[in-house]
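Known limitations

Files may contain more than one protein. Parsers should not assume a single record per file. Below, a two-record file is shown to illustrate correct handling: read the sequence, read the token line, then continue until end of file.
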Amino acid sequence: MHLNPYGQDAVELAADLANRRPADAEELADRCRAAGLVLELPVTPHDLDHAQEALDAWEKVVDATDEHERAGLLNHMLAASTAHPRMTNHTGTGWHMHYRDERLSLGSLLFSLISVGTALHLSGRGMHRLRRCAVSECATIFADTSRTGRQRYCSPRCANRDAVRRHRARTGPSAP
């Protein structure tokens, strides 16, 4: 059963692609397949360009300074990339919703998937649940899927590093 083919998985794919941009169309296709996307058409360099445009627009959503700016930027992405909802069983694995036209190129599919997935993630979990890591030297983007909605770090490694830094700042230099 497909409850939501967009949402969290789409936002996590967007974060993965934004944090480590694909070098070429083949890498983009491989990473999308690994994330579970079904690619119906051959992947071209134009798909990589279109995916990069989608990721550039998405990073502006991530870096928005308030909810209204974030919603406005995301609404612009949605208007540019989505179609009316439709039921589909294109893979033969069960009926589910798509918010895009059928048989899109990978670049267009990603633009739609990222837009709708981000909208569902933010409207369902909270407008603040998409950000960059709180460690100043780390620019990694992550989707906050924690129960409490207070995740500040992209990984336990960054959380631990920042905790050690705060502890050392409070206690001063250690004795030899």
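...continuing to the second record:
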Amino acid sequence: MSTSKGSTLAVLPVAKGEMPDAGPQILQPSGWPAPKGYANGMAADGRLVVTGGVIGWDQQGHLPGDFAGQVRQALSNIKAILAEGGARPEHLVRLTWYVVDIEEYLANLKSLGQIYREIFATHYPAMALVQVVRLVEKAARVEIEATAVVPR
């Protein structure tokens, strides 16, 4: 196993065409700089668990007023959905974030990193961030889709 300087991201050596037994494999092309807080790609073999677009409302349907609070609840909701499907955060292979204001996301990066690690630890799947004009739920500031693969 090799790691890049200053990063907790591990690159697991696996022969081409061979899948690891322990879950998703991080895909890190040789010579590329190690990403911080996400993976360039993931490979996995197992049972697929997929969420819809998850926003940060609680069980009563209330949304926190602040961006970080909505992210915290959305990630907690994803963790609960994964558990229903027999998956854990370390099975995540992809997260797609939809935000209504990318500047709001960037202004909250430090707290978002802390929130992410509290809920998902230091497992960073492939991720994409997309700014959208609006989400279906008008008060929502962020919506996240998750894909996990539970090893067989």
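Parsers that stop after the first record will miss the second one. For reference, the second record is described as follows. The CA atoms of residues 58 and 73 lie 7 Å apart.
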